[in-house]
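#onboarding

Welcome to the new folks! Below is a worked example of what a typical request in this channel looks like: someone posts a single protein sequence, and someone else replies with the predicted structure as tokens. Don't worry about understanding the tokens yet, we'll cover that in week two.

Example request:
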Amino acid sequence: MHSLGLLLVVASLAQAPSAPSTMGAKPPEGAVALFDGKGLEGWVGRNGKPAEWPVTDGLFTVGKGDILTEKTFSDFQLHLEFQTPYMPKATGQGRGNSGVYLQGIHELQILDSYGLKLQDNDCGAIYKQIIPSVNACKPPLQWQTYDITFHAAKFDGSKLVKKARLTVIQNGQSIIDDKEIVPTPGGVTLKDGEPGPLLLQDHGNTVQFRNIWIKPL
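Example response:
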């Protein structure tokens, strides 16, 4: 490419509008604050006992098993902020791994996938089902956002008439656009389509979370 053409491309990119950030977004009317920076009331472990993940400085850190909300949800909008740890010697699924289980059964992966060609088990993927359309990940130790719209599966008696559907915005970029999904391994024991909790996975890495709220639809 000629130097003039290159300069025009660079100028064009510099002028491109950035996506609006939802970092720090407050719960809208009708939303439920699942974590407001003060404590993990309303969260329990898989054993039903109060969640024991440490809370400090308005955030909480993965530890001592999976946690889930006592409240259950069907169709909803979810806002969640997370940060993966810096683990330069780790690779693959051992590098900043956690997960957000919608309705307790659909895993949206959390991982340090910055700069990678994404696969179906990387950050932003529905585990082993959907590869994100773009890599919107930030480097480790930087806060990131998930803004999720979820519609539960619909049944007529025991007959599935509509699969669950999902849209995910990560850091202001659309990575999953209204795609059908089915339950993934590792969640709670619930039938697809039933109201379920939000579950956060303990995969042994010190992923951190803050500012989580959900708005039933």
